[in-house]
Design a protein that fits this description.
This protein is α+β, with helices and mostly antiparallel strands. The protein has 5 domains: 157 residues, no CATH class; 114 residues, no CATH class; 112 residues; 83 residues, Sandwich (Immunoglobulin-like), CATH 2.60.40; 105 residues, no CATH class. The protein contains 16 helices and 21 strands. The strands form 4 sheets. Strands 14, 15, 16, 17, 18, 19, 20 and 21 form an 8-stranded antiparallel sheet that branches. A hairpin with a 6-residue loop joins strand 7 and strand 8. The N and C termini lie far apart (60 Å). Zinc ion binds next to helix 14 and helix 16.
């Protein structure tokens, strides 16, 4: 734990500054989720060619101000932890990491620069600083890995990261050579470049060098003070919703270049900035910055997050929660999904409030797993709430894009927070079959509403179980005895002398619940959004529901059924009031239709495998 003397007095960080391998190796995921993770690590992370994603750094041919230099750092963000997952990791992954780092270090210039921009375009418009941010992250991940192995390569990577950061300071730090401030470079009112704060704080935490904390303070000033800058503090303090933070007079009809330069509603970049601000708060105790981050995240939950735990339209905030039943385009960019999961994870770690685990879980089981191809090899760019799933794009002349590069980072948030056991307290946030430190968990959750945790711990320990806010009457049993005081939206604590084979069971209250929004209906079950899928071939998905279903109504007519194929995780049948011709006797009969979990819906990734989550509800003549 780092203790720093700040202007407001002595401040102890709320949590230890974890390295990039934090809690990896204490969890081994089993069951269907474990299989999905293994497939993704094999087909995507280990399948990435390190020569290909480091080639831009060697060739340095950028002319368009694009972002070829983000791919290596993002890859390292997941490759390093997954190389350590299960203690030994995926075969070949460590070799790929070594191959990549060798090429990256070889590409570093005398002045410290690592990137692919020509000198005249560096630290200016475009995504150069953004790329350096991800390169810093990659170098620091490598440092953490090698430090654990007590290898001297750790210092080499740290040295390279220092020199890269020194380069940024010299160019666009205080009184920098380029004659412009860091926040004035890059896109989105300075969001993109300012988000370098996160790895600058990581660098400070690893070196303790004051100049990096000073640079962080300079970045924070740029994020919060200039009128035309990111304004991540005052707009949050004033309660301005994330979708409404553009300048007065912001021209929504202007061209893309204008929107990119001046917009403040870009979800991924804004959240990346708050991630850095929380890191800065952990060291300095700047509570106002932390409060702004929490307030913003709470606003995102209220205004933007949909029933799939996803958000953003064309990558921007748009008050999407209230519009989720409408056919908006380019929904739920995977970059936004993974960054929201990282934001929730950070808030969970710092606040200990289980509501952030609720949010992370909802996003993971729906928007996140729905964006991942079944074989784990790639991630969708956008994932509609109704429609079909499709490949991401090819960005910057490369056979990858921001989203497929970001995808594997999201799973880590779930994996790291599933269970944390420090020897005194074991906190379970998520319930999936897994071997964790001190316990085995057997569970088909969230397909089934139950999880069983078996102890292989002996001695005293506090077990904390997250009780989801949606689970109204949860039953917790310890060796068969029901416990009292279990409350939704909190942690339930079991303190005892544990013996080998002690069993804790959790029975969640997981009915199907209806949601109404204007004249549209959707259904959730626990954390999972339900969808109709064309593979069920059970009628017209556009037919309206008849009026009468209430928002929040428990739908006891839903029953689980066997899945029609292994491509589905969950399937349910329900007889529901659907029909547009209910004056006719045959139309007045309720229709029996099937649903699956949102993540399984459309997972053939073909236009003829379509799905729907929000269904129209009829109007009458007086509306
Ligand atoms: Zn993306």
């Amino acid at each position: 734990m780092k203790i720093v003397f700040a202007a407001i007095g002595v401040f102890a960080a709320a949590v230890a500054n974890a390295d990039s391998l934090d809690n990896i190796g204490n969890v081994r995921l089993k069951g269907p989720l474990g299989a999905r993770l293994d497939r993704m690590v094999h087909a995507h992370v280990a399948g990435t060619d390190p020569d290909y994603i480091t080639a831009p750094f060697m060739e340095k041919t950028e002319t368009k101000g694009w972002w070829q230099t983000e791919f290596w750092g993002k890859w390292m963000h997941s490759a390093v932890p997954y190389a350590q997952y299960e203690g030994k990791g995926e075969a070949g992954l460590l070799e790929s990491i070594e191959r990549g780092i060798g090429r990256m270090l070889a590409s570093q210039e005398e002045n410290g620069y690592i990137g692919n921009y020509p000198d005249a375009l560096r630290c200016g418009e475009g995504w150069d600083v953004w790329g350096m941010k991800y390169t810093m992250m990659g170098l620091l991940h490598y440092h953490d890995l090698k430090k654990r192995m007590a290898s001297s390569s750790a210092e080499r990577a740290l040295g390279a990261c220092r020199r890269l950061c020194d380069y940024v300071i010299a160019e666009i730090g205080p009184n920098g050579k380029r004659g412009r401030e860091l926040w004035q470079t890059g896109n989105w009112s300075g969001y993109a470049s300012s988000s370098i704060l996160e790895p600058v704080m990581w660098l400070y935490n690893r070196t303790g060098e004051k100049k990096y904390l000073d640079f962080a303070t300079y970045i924070v000033d740029g994020m919060t003070k200039p009128e035309k800058g990111p304004r991540l503090l005052d707009l949050a303090e004033k309660g301005v919703s994330v979708a409404d933070r553009n300048e007065p007079g912001y021209d929504t009809g202007a061209g893309w270049a204008y929107v990119c330069k001046y917009g403040r509603s870009k979800a991924y970049e804004m959240m990346s900035c708050y991630q850095g601000l929380i890191e800065y708060y952990e060291v300095t105790g700047r509570k106002d910055l932390f409060d702004a981050a929490v307030k913003t995240a709470e606003d995102i939950v209220k205004e933007e997050i949909n029933l799939a735990g996803g958000c953003a339209c064309s990558e921007a905030w748009f008050h999407g929660a209230k519009k989720q039943h409408l056919p908006y385009i380019r929904l739920q960019e995977t970059c936004v999904t993974t960054t929201w999961m990282r934001f929730c994870e950070k808030l969970l770690a710092v606040t200990g409030d289980p509501k952030w685990a609720d949010e992370l879980e909802r996003t993971f089981y729906n928007a996140y797993l729905g964006a991942m191809k079944a074989d784990g090899s790639e991630f969708a760019g956008y994932t509609p709430l109704s429609g079909y799933r499709w490949h991401g794009q090819h960005h910057c002349y490369m056979h990858t894009d921001c989203c497929t590069a970001n995808g594997p980072r999201g799973f880590l948030c779930f994996l790291r927070e599933l269970c944390r056991n420090d020897g005194k307290t074991a906190t379970f946030n998520f319930y999936a079959s897994a071997l964790v430190k001190g316990f085995d968990m057997y569970s088909l959750y969230p397909r089934e509403n139950m999880a069983r945790i078996v102890s292989h711990t002996e001695g005293p320990l506090e077990l904390r179980l997250r009780i989801p806010s949606w689970s109204g009457s949860t039953v917790v049993k310890v060796n068969g005895t029901a416990q009292s005081g279990v409350k939704a939206g909190s942690y339930f604590s079991v303190k005892r002398e544990w013996k080998l084979g002690d069993i804790v069971e959790i029975w969640f209250d997981m009915p199907v619940v209806a949601h109404r929004l204007d004249h549209a209906i959707a259904f959730t079950r626990g954390p999972v959004l339900l969808a109709r899928d064309s593979r069920f071939a059970d009628g017209d998905m556009t037919e309206p529901f008849r009026a009468g279903i209430k928002d929040g109504q428990r739908m006891d007519c839903f029953a689980p059924v066997h899945v029609p194929s292994d491509d589905f995780w969950m399937a349910f049948t329900a007889t529901l009031p659907i029909g547009s011709h209910h004056a006719n006797p045959e139309g007045a009969n309720y229709s029996e239709v099937k649903f699956c979990d949102y993540a399984s819906a459309g997972n053939m990734w073909r236009p003829d495998n379509f799905y729907r989550t929000w269904f129209p509800e009829e109007f009458n003549q007086f509306e």
